[in-house]
Amino acid sequence: MQILPFYLLCDESGSMTGEPIDAINGALPDLHHEISTNPTVADKTRFCLIGFSDTATVLQPLVDLSDIDEVPGLAAGGLTSYGEAFRTLRNSIEADVAALKTQGHEVYRPVAFFLSDGIPTDHAWEQAYKELSASRYCPKIIAFGIGEAEESVIAQVANFRAFMQQDSSVSPAQALREFASSLTRSIVRSAATMAADGGNGFTLAVDDTVPGFSTVSLDKL
């Protein structure tokens, strides 16, 4: 079977306390329901949740969501650190792909959705990002910035698509609900694309626009 591993990396820094983290935790059950009850999606995808601040933790190891009752929630605390997030992501992908291949699966290029509301406090995070980018299974990264996140940093993180919370009139909770809806639509449509192609191809179907967000150019200077 051909499997698409996808990873959700969520900022758990102290600035996420309250509405932002509550919005993520409120959206995760919907994501779980959409994927686990859609046979096309559940058969093709495996999901991993990573929370990060000054440390990073795999909160939900890569799994078929139909095999679990609920997705763990996030808890905000610590400083905003990207380095640990990218190191944990790289290590997780390498181990997960090896395990899937041992089980006889063909593995599509992994996808990572990255969400942050702050500016990284670890100035050497770029090295961990370079190591991830140079790894054999570098994922397609879709980055979402909310709150005080810097557009230039979000664009630097993304290698496939980037979005920023549009303005202060859209609350973090509203923005994150749109993010969760976009994520679910992307996985559903992408799996449908695989099914229509007889399971022989995969095109990541991510929205060009997300309500509440502006699209960020990925042109690297």
Automatic annotation (TrEMBL):
Residues 5-183 form the VWFA domain. It holds the Pfam family VWA. InterPro entries: VWF_A, vWFA_dom_sf. Coiled coil: none annotated. This is VWA domain-containing protein. It comes from Streptomyces actuosus. The lineage of its organism: Bacteria, Bacillati, Actinomycetota, Actinomycetes, Kitasatosporales.
